[in-house]
Design brief:
Elements: E1 10-13, H1 16-26, E2 30-33, E3 38-41, E4 48-52, E5 62-68, H2 71-80, E6 89-90, E7 93-94, E8 100-101, E9 109-114, E10 120-125
Parallel strand pairs: 1-4, 5-10
Antiparallel strand pairs: 2-3, 3-4, 6-7, 8-9, 9-10
Amino acid sequence: MFRDTKAFSSFSVDDLQQAKQFYGEILGLDVVETPEGLELHIAGSTPVFIYPSDNYTAPKHTVLNFPVVDIEAAVDELAERGVRMEHYDLPDLKTDERGIFRGDSGPRAIAWFKDPAGHVLSVLQGE
């Protein structure tokens, strides 16, 4: 039934202009403004739609993951652009001083950061 549909992801924000600046200027994504919101054009995938919300609450889960070849370089570049990495000190999730988690399974390394609306995003390096 849905095999051939062009599904896409979407999420809301409390400030569309802050989102446009962050995703376009800080992350360097192609952002297209539409009457309804913003379209993020990410390499190799269907656009992600961002729309305004008057009663916005940030979700706790990760909404976008960006695979990278070199996580240290990605974290450094994000820091140079003013992005702060999240740090975790939980029993099963401890990030290092740079905010990078290296686990025994899954991606080789992952680091999380937030957009201006509080969405959790990640950069992750595969095996």
